[in-house]
Specification:
This protein has 158 residues and is α+β, with helices and mostly antiparallel strands. It has one domain: Roll (Thiol Ester Dehydrase, Chain A). Helix content is 22%, strand content 34%. The protein has four helices and six strands. The longest helix has 16 residues. The two termini are 25 Å apart.
């Protein structure tokens, strides 16, 4: 487990319109196929020879669930220091482009909305547009996420 941040970003620190981008990650063929064989064994994810004849993909592609898992890793690069309470849900989830071995991907995040959480004044609700972008700048995966974030405690001066 990684070290905990020494300074947290709270609800008040997240700025509407703020856009951030993660470090890059190169898709590893062996990890991609191993994941597919265990969790999403469709032939176009798990069998390279059979995937060559796929009408649309014309070769092996990453599972959508694997893509979402990679997003989670990359998003941690952006938001590991945010004082999250929990996620509330994902809306308008879309897989726009297939991911192939050796693609380089980045997570991006843009804060779209912030509002108080009526059930608890110590937290707020934040809506973020999350995307994975490939090395060609194409959106591969994206969704709108709503999450709860701790508000700054009175004894934390920021």
């Amino acid at each position: 487990m990684s070290d905990m941040p020494t300074k947290w970003r709270y609800f008040e620190d997240l700025v509407i319109g703020q856009k951030e981008r993660s470090k890059g990650l190169t898709l590893d063929r062996d990890k991609m196929v191993a994941f597919a064989r265990e969790y999403d064994p469709q032939y176009f994810h798990a069998d390279e020879a059979a995937a060559q004849d796929h009408k649309i993909f014309q070769g092996i592609t990453a599972s959508g669930i694997y893509t979402a898992a990679l997003w989670r890793i990359l998003d941690h690069d952006i938001y590991e220091d945010v004082a999250w309470v929990c996620g509330l849900g994902w809306d308008e989830v879309r897989w726009r482009k297939p991911l192939k071995p050796d693609d380089v991907i980045y997570a991006t995040a843009e804060v779209l909305e912030k509002r108080p959480w009526p059930k608890d004044p110590t937290i707020g609700r934040v809506t973020v547009r999350h995307e994975i972008i490939n090395q060609r700048g194409e959106m591969v995966f994206g969704y709108y996420g709503d999450s709860l974030v701790h508000r700054r405690p009175p004894d934390d001066e920021g």
